[in-house]
Amino acid sequence: MAKVQSRNSLSLVILSIFVIFYLNNIVVDGKSSFGRVLDPVKMGLKKEKLSHFRVYWHDIVGGKNPTAVPVANAPGAKKSPTAFGLITMIDDPITEGPELSSKLIGRAQGLYASASLGELGLLMNMNFAFMVGKYNGSTISIMGRNTVFSKVREMPIIGGSGLFRFARGYVQAQTHMFNLTNGDATVEYNIYVFHF
Ligand SMILES: *[C@@H]1O[C@H](CO)[C@@H](O)[C@H](O)[C@H]1NC(C)=O
Ligand SMILES: *[C@@H]1O[C@H](CO)[C@@H](O)[C@H](O)[C@H]1NC(C)=O
What we know:
mainly beta, about 15% helix, globular, membrane, transmembrane, Dirigent, secreted
């Protein structure tokens, strides 16, 4: 019995060594057909930078040309005081200043969903698509929790594209204006992002 067990554990050790050797070959050796290790500098990833942007996000729900439209509603959402289960699709303009007429920097495209039973709390899932200067075509992806009545809401930046490849960081959102008549909102976004 003891002999059988020790033979078994010996084959387990040999198997583990083989597996580690095999994985090492794939990940480190760089010779595998589907994966290899790259030199970050050759990929143009020289130095990680930390950038700050301050922009204004306009959620236009009222009027003839809304940029935020409800697309799905749970059966109870209309009766829920927190609109739990409501999903809204957005293509919101992002501008340099608080006025909608100020310079367009890009658009916030994605959706927000009422994800809290107890307070007005949104799950935000959106891409900031930049449309000016060297940032034109680059995006930052934001996904986080937005309790809209809190003074400052912090949400993670979970990635990016173009000049924001390998992005990580956070945004802080602060309501600048909320129109009680039509529901339109302007929110100041301070973006803190590490990128190359
Ligand atoms: C941004 O890029 C698009 C697509 O390449 C181009 O059509 C547009 O003119 C550019 N805008 C600016 C402001 O450079
Ligand atoms: C709020 O919305 C109403 C209705 O669209 C509009 O008449 C009013 O000017 C808006 N108020 C502000 C401060 O933008």
